[in-house]
């Protein structure tokens, strides 16, 4: 099976074209577990399946290294945009992508004929507790205390199609991401688990962030997590509606438009190599 290795700020994916692979959709989850393994497989933070869609330009499905299927992935959708543009699967720079979270609209930004960046209309953030989803009484979850086995956290919950729990911290040196991350990811108040962002406000235009991803562990970057963090920062009066979000693997520009309530994410996408894998040998 042919594959392409891509990444967005070091959040890396194995990208497969549905029509050209022998995989059937029932195989996607267990194939993700095998291929994403960094020692026994290709290695990646997710398996991405892309193909022609019946209604929109293309569809995208993503599977975490634990085999679970998230609704959306910000870094993957930028990679998918570059992939389908460069392979001629689309003919316009504005692309419509069907995802489990609904349609999303990336635009590839070209420089000297090459994809320099991708700007994605990530849609409206979801703030209503039950839709995150999170248990408890109706309303937004902004700066709310949550007791866990690792102590008490003040959290803001935002869904960008997939669930995020944002915790503001003063500095990262005292944040044991791999200890606190799974405690919050698997807290019973999140029935579908959650991604977890630890965010530090640098100034009103800049936020640094580390992420613990549902089904993947700590990664170098998370696009939906960066969007959720900007929304949470604004809701907590910590930044304006536009900020640079600094992640371990690089930077994203995130904007929350007051006119249409949509969040826009701009950042790079890179292709690293292509290859072939014999699934029978894994
Ligand atoms: N890295 C992603 C998010 C991938 C999905 C996530 N692990 C989940 O389960 O929701 C991004 O860039 O948004």
TrEMBL record:
The alphabetized UniProt keywords are: Amino-acid biosynthesis, Cytoplasm, Isomerase, Lysine biosynthesis
Q: Where in the cell is it found?
A: Cytoplasm
Q: In which pathway does it act?
A: Amino-acid biosynthesis; L-lysine biosynthesis via DAP pathway; DL-2,6-diaminopimelate from LL-2,6-diaminopimelate: step 1/1
| Top-level taxon of origin | Bacteria
Q: Matching InterPro entries, A to Z?
A: DAP_epimerase_AS, DAP_epimerase_DapF
Coiled coil ranges: none
Q: Which GO terms describe its cellular component?
A: cytosol
Cite the EC number. 5.1.1.7
- Site annotated as Could be important to modulate the pK values of the two catalytic cysteine residues: where? 164, 213
- What would be an example GO MF term here? diaminopimelate epimerase activity
* Residues that bind substrate: 11, 64, 74-75, 162, 195, 213-214, 223-224
> Which sites are catalytic?
73, 73 (proton donor), 222 (proton acceptor)
Cited function: Catalyzes the stereoinversion of LL-2,6-diaminopimelate (L,L-DAP) to meso-diaminopimelate (meso-DAP), a precursor of L-lysine and an essential component of the bacterial peptidoglycan.
User: Subunit composition?
Assistant: Homodimer.
Protein name, entry field: Diaminopimelate epimerase
Name the source organism. Answer: Syntrophothermus lipocalidus (strain DSM 12680 / TGB-C1)
- The gene name on file is dapF
């Amino acid at each position: 099976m042919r594959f392409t290795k891509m990444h967005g700020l070091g959040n890396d994916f194995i990208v497969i074209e549905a029509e050209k692979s022998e995989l059937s959709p029932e195989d996607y989850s267990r194939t993700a577990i095998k291929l994403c393994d960094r020692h026994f497989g290709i290695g990646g933070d997710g398996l991405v399946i892309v193909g022609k869609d019946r209604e929109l330009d293309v569809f995208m499905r993503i599977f975490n290294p634990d085999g679970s299927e998230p609704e959306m992935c910000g870094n993957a959708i930028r990679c998918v945009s570059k992939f389908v543009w460069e392979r001629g699967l689309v003919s316009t720079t504005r692309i419509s992508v069907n995802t489990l979270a609904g349609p999303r609209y990336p635009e590839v930004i070209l420089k000297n004929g090459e994809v320099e960046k991708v700007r994605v209309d990530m849609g409206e953030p979801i703030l209503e507790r039950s839709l995150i989803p999170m248990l408890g009484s109706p309303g937004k979850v902004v700066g709310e205390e949550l007791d866990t086995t690792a102590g008490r956290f003040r959290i803001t919950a935002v869904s960008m199609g997939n669930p995020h729990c944002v915790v503001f911290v003063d500095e990262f040196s005292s944040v044991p991401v791999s200890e606190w991350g799974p405690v919050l990811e698997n807290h019973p108040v999140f029935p579908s688990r959650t991604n977890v962002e630890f965010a530090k406000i640098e100034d009103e235009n800049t936020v640094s962030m580390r992420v613990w991803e549902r089904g993947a562990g700590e990664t170098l970057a998370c696009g939906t997590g960066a969007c959720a963090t900007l929304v949470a920062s604004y809701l907590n009066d910590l930044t304006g509606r536009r900020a640079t979000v600094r992640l371990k693997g690089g930077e994203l520009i995130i904007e929350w438009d007051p006119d249409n309530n949509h969040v826009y994410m701009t950042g790079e996408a890179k292709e690293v190599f292509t290859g072939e894998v014999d699934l029978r040998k894994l």
